Amino acid sequence: MQKAAFMTDLRKMEIREIPIPVVKDEEVLVRLEYVGICGSDVHYLEYGKIGDFVVDGDFILGHECAGVVEQVGSKVTDMKVGDRVALEPGCTCGKCEFCKTGRYNLCADVRFLATPPYAGCLENYIAFPADMCFKLPDNMSTEEGALVEPLSVGIHAAHQGNVTLGSSVVILGAGCIGLVTLLACKALGAADITVVDVLPKRLEYAKELGATCTINAASCDTVEEMKKITGQAGTEVVIETAGSPKTIAQTSLLVKRGGTIVLVGMSAQDIISYDFSKIMAKEATIKSVFRYRNIYPQAIQAISQGIIPVKKIVTHEFDFSQTAEAFNFVIDHKEDVVKAVIKIS
Question: For residue 248, what is the enclosing H or E element?
Fold first, then answer.
């Protein structure tokens, strides 16, 4: 038997004993060591749903994870017991046009951890497809391995914005995803990175992680400040990670002529008033981000080689026995928490 943390109701969790899963031929059994608390996990616990995905009954949260291989299936040839791995949490069909063209994050038949009806990974052991488990180098911890998942979102956002050497970027939102996007943009060579948020502590973190400028939107007008910074020109790449209707609407005002807007944050409000005349006049490009694709290997290498110090985003760590307290702490102290992780074993 093993232990797993179940969401039993809104803002209620309990740890129960469940069977250790049986490994299939092409799977490995992973003893999990770290699981990150994602904003989506918190949203499910607070509200019970995200869009059309509704929690029905007791549910295991968590999808950012890493651990040690304890058993390998009969058809697994490239992994062995003792390998340390990060798990990419989405298993797709492999047959649709999106999977076959390498855009598997758009597969409609994806089984993604902690996205109803598929259980998450806040447990001691998980059986998982070996081809979605990525080995970690010796100099990389499993805590860093659990952070590969959010970092992959940030790298994908930077790629969608075509961030390259010398780029100017403004990132709206300095939560976990905003900060890993900052790290990704910096690693890709962006010269000017402005980060906008309403929480001073998060802006301090952004400065520590390499932002060239920060704007506290609670005390000034972001659009006017960016006009001063850019000499009225706007910014080449605008990346929205806050998921706020206000900041999403600001992107058309902040982007430079011919620039690119990347929408990452998911707004609770589906329909938002937006100035498309500005987009038309600027011939700006709007792109969006849905998770990531083909990024885990490069993210792992970037962490291993010291290019992206992803562990710096972790502000709080809790033991597995404190899972309920950890989630409630994150909910009640959003102004203090950038990234919380749970140490499973």
Answer: helix 245-254
Residues 6+ apart with CB under 8 A from 164: 188, 189, 190
Separation CA 196–CA 30 (nearest Å):
39
Model-level pTM? 0.96
Q: Kind of pairing, strands 2-9 and 12-18?
A: antiparallel
Pair 39, 150: CB distance under 8 Å: no
Enclosing H/E stretch for 222:
helix 222-230
Burial class (CB in 10 A: 0-12, 13-18, 19+), 345: middle
Determine the straight-line distance between the first and last CA of the chain, rounded to whole angstroms.
15
Would you say 137 and 35 are in contact if contact means Cβ atoms under 8 Å apart?
Answer: no
pLDDT tens for the chain, residues 1 to 345: 999 999 999 999 999 999 999 999 999 999 999 999 999 999 999 999 988 899 999 999 999 999 999 999 999 999 999 999 999 999 999 999 999 999 999 999 999 999 999 999 999 999 999 999 999 999 999 999 999 999 999 999 999 999 999 999 999 999 999 999 999 999 999 999 999 999 999 999 999 999 999 999 999 999 999 999 999 999 999 999 999 999 999 999 999 999 999 999 988 788 999 999 999 999 999 999 999 999 999 999 999 999 999 999 999 999 999 999 999 999 999 889 999 999 998
Length of the chain equals: 345
Backbone φ and ψ for 326, nearest 5 degrees, come out as -60, -50
Task: Please name every residue paired with 35 in a beta bridge, in sequence order, or none if there are none.
Answer: 65, 342
Buried b (16+ CB within 10 A) or exposed e, 45-82: beebebeebebeeebbbbbbbbbbbbbbbeebeebeee
CA distances, 299 to each of 88, 155, 176 (Å): 12, 8, 16
